[in-house]
Automatic annotation (TrEMBL):
PANTHER family: CCA TRNA NUCLEOTIDYLTRANSFERASE 1, MITOCHONDRIAL. It comes from Actinopolymorpha rutila. This is Poly(A) polymerase. GO terms for molecular function: metal ion binding; nucleotide binding; poly(A) RNA polymerase activity; tRNA binding. Keywords: Coiled coil, Magnesium, Metal-binding, Nucleotide-binding, Nucleotidyltransferase, Transferase, tRNA processing. SMART domains: HDc (SM00471). It is an enzyme of class 2 (transferase).
Amino acid sequence: MSTDHLSEAQQRGVRELLRIAPVIDELGARFQAAGARLALVGGSVRDALLGRLGLDLDFTTSARPIEVERLLTGWADAVWDIGREFGTIGARKGDWTIEITTFRAEAYSSDSRKPAVTFGDTLEGDLGRRDFTVNALAVNLPDRAFVDPFGGLTDLAAGVLRTPGRPEDSFTDDPLRMMRAARFASQLGFSVAPEVVAAIRAMADRITIVSAERVRDELVKLVLGPDPRAGLELLVGAGLADHILPELPALRLELDEHHRHKDVYEHSLTVLDQAIAMEGRIGTGGPDFVTRFAALMHDVGKPATRRFEDGGRVTFHHHEVKGARITTKRMRALRFSGEQMDAVSRLVELHLRFHGYGGGEWTDSAVRRYVRDAGPLLDRLHVLTRADCTTRNRRKAASLQRTYDQLEERIARLAEEEELASIRPDLDGNEIMQTLGVPPGPVVGRAYKHLLEVRLDQGRLDKDAVRGELLRWWAEQPEARA
């Protein structure tokens, strides 16, 4: 390993330590005076060496939680019990958020879904039980002595993930670490050592003992990373995805003998890459999980709907509908919120709608329905639909983009004229009851839906015209003839 790279990391680390010195020096002196050992540890040291340390600081200590809480009280602005059973106490000091965890060891039994925690006695022992060498780094306080018993600094400079000990032992202690390897590949751009990949492949089924919530949280962090493709390829290649996201490896459809349809797995990863490149169009100000996960899942209905027809033609009729159902089922199993699940599934269901637009022959009514059906997801649908074009035929790709440009221009024009984002009938419920002379009930709801269709078909009408349309509809209803 080049010493130049090591010195760059060390220089970044020194600068970051100087920046946080007012906090770590005071805290270190406080623990030292009490006879306890304290060290900045793990991700905080790693991120300091990468020059990306934020306002969250992680420490480890020989002190037990009750003593940690006592030492923080009177120094920190606020102290809270963040996870006493896991040995962690949280605090806030100015802009800094602090977590201090007692030296510990954690391991799963063969059938446990949660780690059993026991406290350790040494910093070195604590570091040896960390997930990867780049996280098994510490800075003793208050003397700021660097502790690196497993070569984490070298691995950090090389951009490689290794475990402090045998990877099989590490993944036995906590199987979720296998997913963390994929997450760090996405977040940090690190490669994963061959022996670590081999251990993941051999132990992949052990991920099933981890709770769905913990798996979900790692998956979200992976998808939101700068390079989710790298993490997803590890999940699939090492067999982890078979247990947590089986829909993804299922996309590796074998090509028909005439090679007439795309590799759907690679296509989906490319759509994800392209959606990420267009995230600025959404206006969320950062990575958007809903759009990214919809891009990843948009074709998961294809394996179940694939049909071979005469002449070697392959079809996937209604795969968007099937895919939306599959997406809902998977996200529910991973304990996603109803809001996220509905949003992602809706985008999967709508992702082909644009292809009915053809050469731009949609009526204004069809454009209004497109906007109405997308609702608050419209900007995300724009991104997903554009990202779904992965053809290598430049002429075809340019034509699709021009056509979608035209659709967006029509949406913008209609939106300016008609307030498309809040389309509703031109009569409200009270006006419907007054016009028809009916009390509240199912008839009013049906009338409201009819007037919404009129609004979508014909655009904005004056009140007299709408009342006339309502009365014509009413005359055809059985209640009016009773």
